[in-house]
Amino acid sequence: MTSLYEEMAPTPADEVPVRQVTITVNGERRSARVEPRLLLVHLLRQGFKLTGTHIGCDTTNCGACTVLVDGTPIKSCTMLAVQADGHDVMTVEGLAGPSELHAIQEGFKEEHGLQCGFCTPGMMLTSKALLEENPNPTEDEIRWALGGNLCRCTGYQNIVKAVMWAAEKLGDGAVSTAEYGDGEVTA
Amino acid sequence: MLKLRFASPEMLVDINEIPDLAYHVRDPDGAIRVGALCRHADLERSTLLAQHQPTMMGAAPVVADPIVRNRGTLVGSLCHADPQGDWASVMMALDASVIAYGTQGRRSIPIRDLVSGPFQNTLSYDEIAVEAVVPPPQGVATGGYLKLERRVGDFATAGVAVAIDRVGDRVVRAGIGLTGVGGSTIAADDAAAVLIDGSLSAENISEAAELAAAAARPHTDHRGSADYKRQLIRVFTRRLLNRLTTAGEEAA
Amino acid sequence: MTALDEVKIGGLGSSRRRVEDNRFVRGKGSYLDDITLPGMLHMEILRSPLAHARINSIDTSKAWAMPGVRLVLTGETMAARNLAWMPTLSYDTQAVLATDKVRFQGQEVACVIADDPYIAKDACQAIVVDYEPLPVVVNPTGSLAEGAPVIRDDKENQPDNVIYDWEVGDKDGTDRAFAEADLVSEIELHYPRSHPSPIECCGSVADFNRATSKLTVYLTTQAPHIIRAAVALVAELPEHMIRIVAPDIGGGFGNKVPVYPGYVAAILASILLERPVKWIEDRTGNLISTGFARDVYLQGQLALRRDGKILGVRMNTLADHGAFFSDAQPSKFKIGLMHSAFACYDIPTAHLQARGVYTNKAPGGVAYRCSFRVTEAMFFQERMVQAAADDLGMDQAEFRRRNFVRDDDFPHRTPFGFLTDSGQYAKCLDVGLEAIGYQSFLQEKEEAAKRGRLLGIGISTMTEPLGAGNSREYDILGIKMFDSAELRIHMTGKALLRTGAKSQGQGHETTWAQIVAHELGIPAEDVLVEEGDTDTSPFGMGTYASRSTPVAGAAVAMVSRKIKAKARKIAAHLLEISEEDVEWELGRFYVRSQPDRGVTIQECAAAAYSNMPDGMEPGLENVAYYDPPNLTWPFACYIATVEVDPETGVWDVLRVVAVDDCGVRINPMIVEGQIMGGLTEAYAMANMQFITFDEEGNCIGANFTDYLLPTSWETPGFELHEVVTPCPHHPIGAKGIGECAAVGGPAAFVNAVMDAVKGTGARNIDMPVFPDRVYQALQTGQDVSGAPPVRAEA
Fold this sequence. Notes:
A: 187 residues, alpha+beta, DNA polymerase, domain 1, 2 domains, five-stranded mixed beta sheet, C: 794 residues, six-stranded mixed beta sheet, 19 helices, 35 strands, 28% helix
């Protein structure tokens, strides 16, 4: 972002309302001028160029748009951008640390918890919130918590394994060998 | 509603930032009050409900899906007046009321008077609903909620809320609410009535189940025939009541 | 020198972790809707609310007047440019934007292109269309009835709603077999309309650059080269000036093969406005108008001998194709590979009669992990087999075992003309039965019945043809179904591989490199794989019908071998020996008589740029186009156990066992991922996925509230087992696998439920086997059909 220059959109008609919002996204304060009817997911994707949050349906079912608002999983397609004003939002882009992936991201890689990758950001954020509330979930508890995130590719079994892998890693840092052998094949 | 362009309001008032409305509490007299911003998820995790309100506890985990539960509210659900809403039949079985607050002050709206049609409530334009109130139980509160959903987040094919207050073995108050089997939530009053003053026996449970099925006014549609939905009402009513008998508790 | 460990370098059999995941877990995938080009505009489509209606007028004036609206397209404006209709992949035509009438609810009527998608949607709402409703047809009975409205009155020589009549097999021989049978087992059922519904919807960004005359289209497509050919045909632009780029795709499952009206409209809009135009549909648009799957009725009969031998098969199928015949399938086969049914059984004679009709619904039929109608074929097969075993009073497993093609009977020609080359069907079944504990489950079932509990077990066994296909028999719109791979080895021994396939989650960036590692000993991590850009990838027919490992994978092996042949010559030159004295071990050429003297493949690569033998062309790259000699024949046994609640009809899955043989497994982890995904689709189809219509043609199932996809909570766990019979003709012995479980799985679940309710007399409940249907079967003892229209009554 620069203040050196900024192209302005053609002046909107008088009756198009505009609001300013300031949201802390992945730890960074960001502001935008938005129409009140703009969905949060669109502000994140088109406004802030964070395209890791995805859209998969129009009836709040699929969960591909899940982000964490003040740490709680929310479907960002069903929240208006103005409603997030003053709040904290974490998207998938905020999961990794400066030099390494979050344990959940590693777990999804290790346990083949994704195929096309489209539902994955939402799955991982919901999982993160789950592990923060329940660091040692059972398989049933994981499946229950992910009931708002749809996946077409994996059949969920490996997603459950991915979350359990992450739980182990976050717990004591040691992970028993993943089913598919030593994930550290050199190639 | 907005996204699907069913509604195009000129102005939307967001109440999410109003402080001090996210509570749910139990008063000294046993009444339970749920603030307008108390989320389904708060109720799902509530130790208070787990200890004191089994009917609500039965419904909280099966409303929508876990992420939607982080945002949706019980009071909002009641005002939304979806005929397939789960909370409405729970509140109906509990004889609850909704407190509205507006320019004319506060007023209490009994649950049976809150809805005037599908997606239409009786709040006036200058009121908002601030709280739902469940009256104190007349004895020990027991009950539960069963619904048929074909997958998490599905609307109910049919659902039953049962709320029974007992002193010892004797039923002193009963309420049965039916989801998804009519143009609006149904209070199965005749079914509830046969349970009062008796203990839950196989006979009166069976009678209540039949009366609940008879109170249903289901439509045949892609979710099933009217007869099938009545069968679900019959079976769920019976199963919920059976669970409350000593035999049922032992079996559980 | 010790030889390289193939698994350690990421060769065949290595479960190397996926390359794609690095960007996906960071949210850095580049899916269609992530693409933004300077000056890009947004397109929305106005869809018809009616299933069948004449269009009297369309008034777009209010839309044009809205600020931010740049262009409004209607059928009329398309027609002026000869673009209102386009050819389909099945030699029919399909409306791009409706002109004379609309033929299904959700059909595209107009498009608005505007500065942002919200304005475009606002403007769509401002378009006024005057419709005159016409009578509606929602099922084949309606299509074929006397006096039915002719849906395709736009076509010459189309007096009714019949699209095709097709048959294969031996009618007379089969009739004789039926005449001699001790028993004829018959079943009628409907495989309902379903939809692939990947989580990412379809879309495109069309970018016509007037200055360079080049059209670039980013598109959610599983087959970029087919799209390029189609666009060249439809838009009459020269093929070399069209570039199709398929970015990361959020699931395909067959939904992203056809050419959709939205793509064509976006391309025209971009040409007219000389700006990029993005069209991304919403979920309702996806479910109501894009390629659906299945919707076929079956009348099936088996001629049986008392001892359980199947003497003949009769299949009579009726396919509901919707308003346009737009299936992507090999053109010779009107009903796809329906006639691959019964390939795992040794049957002397068979006859298939197939008819396809138009109805007032979205076009399609072939889509959704179906291997070109093999989902229907195998479902029908295993439902017929189950019914036959029951009619004979014979054990389900035993009946199958008696009829399997024996291990030593290959090559085997099926009565429908397919040639299977290998299989161990009985072993596959035995592994499954052992894993599920067959005998003890049967006992448990009997005990439970005494206490009023209904348990059931369902078996589904099959072999299916994957890897279309050989040029003698297979083509789409005349283009043969080969595939390709181009491999370039750089001077430091790293490599770039491009193929004509297009992964939508199958992991090609990971697995193709494994084939190169296997063939050349170059570590997989040193091979960069790219797919999807028609300017850089060699021509291929794309990824669907589980054809990529069989065809594109084979091409990867073959191009690696071409490169190895040249590298061998370079090695001989470097080692100063003749080529006959050169030996190979993984990654290295060496002198036969002095094994310690050798050169690595990387050293050969360097030499290709700096130390070539005299007369040899420099560089180390090649391309291979692979025309498969035959299809591959993976086989499987799926077994499900269930318990049915007799009071509500709800059924719960107890266990699912899957035994799959897909030949050599390139990456076991990825193979298992495909199987589990397929089993979930199978469960979903058997249990809840449903698109239906009411009498007015209103689509029920056009959003995720009505079209149910299973969540992690309902989806059962899967126990996977394997049998490995390498494919005799594939260069690395591999077969396809992506769709097997979706093909064979549904019957396992349905057979299990039917087994549980066997006592009632009902022989069939159509999928999805909803609780209310089970309850109905239990109450009435009659079969339960799910065919449209769905009736609503107060």
